[in-house]
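We were asked to recover a plausible sequence for a given structure. The inputs and outputs are reproduced exactly as logged, with field labels preserved.

PROBLEM: sequence recovery
POSITIONS: 165
GIVEN STRUCTURE:
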């Protein structure tokens, strides 16, 4: 996994410019991710790449288009010092793992990174950076691919077992 580094206060307009909000297809949105902020992102991002940012990532409007653009680009993990609250929730809802890391600023751009959720760290260039624990239910939502898919899985379990979940 390769790191794409961003600064503090990256808002949802920087992630996906407002003129593209007429689209809801993550693949289409991905073509314009970080347009005007980091133009090479949409052309060079690979599935599994990781965004690392400073404070307040995803601030601005509450649009779900921003995390959808990132899922369309193959991003499944974002590491930041802090997240805007609504972006954090929207990220989980579409299957992106938001990791809070006090030392995110120290993770170098372009570095290869590994993530160990169970042990609570990410590692880049031989240095480990602690991340805050992720509650199990959130991990389950993200593993399912987002909140809608998670709810479908619960409904399937309920239907198959005839039990109340």
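RECOVERED SEQUENCE:
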């Amino acid at each position: 996994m390769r790191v794409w580094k961003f600064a503090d206060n990256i808002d949802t307009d920087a992630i996906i410019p407002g003129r593209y909000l007429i689209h809801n297809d993550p693949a289409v949105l991905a073509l314009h991710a970080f347009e005007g902020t980091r133009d090479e992102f949409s052309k060079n991002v690979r599935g599994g790449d990781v965004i690392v940012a400073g404070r307040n990532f995803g601030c601005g409007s509450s649009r779900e288009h921003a995390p959808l653009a990132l899922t369309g680009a193959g991003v499944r993990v974002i590491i930041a010092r802090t997240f805007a609250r609504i972006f954090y929730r929207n990220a989980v809802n579409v299957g992106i793992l938001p990791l809070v890391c006090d030392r995110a600023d120290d993770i170098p751009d372009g570095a290869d990174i590994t993530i160990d959720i169970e042990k609570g760290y990410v590692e880049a260039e031989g240095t480990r950076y602690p991340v805050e624990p992720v509650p199990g239910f959130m991990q389950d939502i993200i593993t399912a691919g987002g909140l809608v898919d998670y709810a479908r899985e619960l409904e399937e379990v309920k239907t198959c077992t005839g039990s109340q979940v």
